[in-house]
Specification:
Chain lengths: 119, 116
């Protein structure tokens, strides 16, 4: 299947600092990538849709200035958590849309996820 | 807006048994995709099976198959000959077919435990 790589897997940062998480589609081009947040023992919550070459579309309730998303190329999207606070600690996971491939139409593949701990 | 409901928070079966996970959804869309993802303790989301709404034939992938009832908006996952490695969270997900304009809407998940 298609491979999506996310880095770093684990990151600890101090409160007030910024941290960047990268999401790469390794063997396909993805015009659309998605960023999710998952709290312990809960489902995935869509944060934003990242479109190559244009501004991200954020879900209601997600702060655009806090969670900066950049999709500068067809294989890379980044999520920057700015001025991080302990309540931003969570599991962040990205996904990329593959059009075609082993299935007709669209399929979504996920990265490995990133654990963010803000201390 | 779409909603996805998984009514079984947790299920437990013996190894080699067959288990069915339920999922219902609500949408006004006619063209969409449905997915089942597996999330083991590593938290990696693994695509198990995918169904296109316009296809009447139920999708199958080895030991995994679905029962897709479009009129009833039901999309259950059947795991045959269950194995210990099947232990994981299973999420049902919905996606509109709009050329990638939307992400996935997930259910709350079912924690499946395969007992030896």
């Amino acid at each position: 299947g298609a491979v999506v790589s996310q880095h770093p897997s684990w990151v600890i940062c101090k409160s007030g600092t910024s941290v960047k998480i990268e999401c790469r589609s390794l063997d396909f081009q993805a015009t659309t990538m998605f960023w999710y947040r998952q709290f312990p023992k809960q489902s995935l919550m869509l944060m934003a849709t990242s479109n190559e070459g244009s501004k991200a579309t954020y879900e209601q309730g997600v702060e655009k200035d806090k969670f900066l998303i950049n999709h500068a190329s067809l294989t890379l999207s980044t999520l920057t958590v700015t001025s991080a606070h302990p309540e931003d600690s969570s599991f962040y996971i990205c996904s990329a849309e593959l059009q075609g491939g082993p299935y007709s139409g669209n399929t979504i593949y996920f990265g490995e996820g990133s654990w963010l701990t803000v201390v | 807006a779409q909603t996805v409901t998984q009514s079984q928070p947790e299920m437990s079966v013996q190894e080699a048994e067959t288990v069915t996970l339920s999922c219902t959804y609500d949408t006004s869309e006619n063209n969409y995709y449905l997915f089942w993802y597996k999330q083991p303790p590593s938290r990696q989301m693994i695509l198990v099976i995918r169904q296109e709404a316009y296809k009447q034939q139920n999708a199958t992938e080895n030991r995994f198959s679905v029962n897709f009832q479009k009129a009833a908006k039901s999309f259950s996952l059947k795991i045959s000959d269950s194995q210990l490695g099947d232990t994981a969270m299973y999420f049902c997900a919905f996606m509109k077919n709009r050329g990638g304009a939307d992400g996935l809407t997930f259910g709350k998940g079912t924690h499946l435990i395969i007992q030896p």
